[in-house]
Design a protein that fits this description.
- The protein has one domain (5-72).
- The longest helix is centred in the last third of the chain and has 16 residues, at 48-63.
- By secondary structure, it is an alpha+beta fold.
- It has a two-stranded antiparallel sheet with strand order 1-2.
- β3 (33-37) and β4 form a beta hairpin.
- It has three helices and four strands; from the N terminus they run ββαββαα.
């Protein structure tokens, strides 16, 4: 798919067609991440660093669930 770069105020931007937004399951106001890969760039709504941090947090919550329940009282 070919996309054109447009001037938007003092910056440049790319307009994503509706079908692309639908396939990415995103809409106006959502965040997308541009990730550099060996083959070029990847545009994704998935934040790998955030997912990694959430996995660590879930592990901690699971390991310390008794302590967290006591603190919640």
């Amino acid at each position: 798919m070919e996309l054109a770069i447009h001037s938007i105020g003092n910056v440049a931007g790319v307009v994503l067609p509706k079908e692309v937004l639908t396939r990415l399951s995103v809409g106006k106001g959502d965040k997308l991440y541009l990730i550099e890969t060996e083959d070029g760039y990847k545009l994704t709504p998935y934040n790998e660093e955030f997912a990694k941090q959430m996995g660590i947090a879930e592990d901690i919550m699971h390991e310390d669930c008794d302590i967290l329940k006591a603190l919640a009282k």
